[in-house]
Amino acid sequence: MLQFSTVRVVMRVVFDIGGSVLVPEDPDIEFIRALSYELIKISEDHEVAVVVGGGKVSRKYIKAAKTFTPNETFKDYIGIHITRANAMLLIAALGEKAYPFVIQDFRKAWEVIQLKKIPIMGGTHPGHTTDAVAALLAEYLQADLLVVVTNVDGVYDSDPRKNPNAKKLERITPEQLVEIAMEAESKAGGSGVVDALAAKFIQRGRIRTYIVGKRDAYHLFDVVRGKHHGTVVEP
Ligand code: UTP
Fold first, then answer.
1. Which terminus, N or C, of the chain has the lesser number of Cβ atoms within 10 Å?
2. What's the confidence (pLDDT) of residue 149?
């Protein structure tokens, strides 16, 4: 008699949730609820780790701090605190499934995964953003996949907020991602869909990455299975 068995492939997935997606003005409660539901569902089959950004709140605090100090590193620390407050919010929403402290060390994140809990991180050190943290975490954990959730729905050949004819790129190499991210950062006040340092880490770690928008983030379970409208970065 033929016996069919389904082989379950366990993936290790790192999610990079942009602060502006999680907390656009105020915390987006409905989104955080939906995100938590999807993350818990994914964690039933896969190993999951999450990094969250600071969003508008961190930008407001950093701007306010500029009035009092020119010290960039100091302002980065303020940003890091805000990312960690957002991380606490996600921990609250995930309940028992999340490790109850904000993780600050990649090795601890690994340990938490072994405990079958979801490690949640914010920022780590001054000088970069949480995109870079997520890319480094994915590299350290040897993740099978990095999912970047950002406020643009993928990588475009030019800035879609400025050029209505900008075309979304469905599939790019890490080298192309580095080029696009560096080009965006070189423009005054420019910030790309992923920061250039993170793109470099994605290239260095040969990390398979999906870059998706908020609409797709409501269906992260499908995104992990490759069903989304964003960009695939394929090493
Ligand atoms: P974010 O990662 O949120 O930066 O960190 P962002 O570019 O504003 O991204 P979105 O909008 O959330 O997606 C906020 C600030 O915190 C500091 C930096 O100053 C950064 O701009 N930070 C964050 C660090 O210095 N180190 C970190 O590891 C993370």
1. N
2. 98
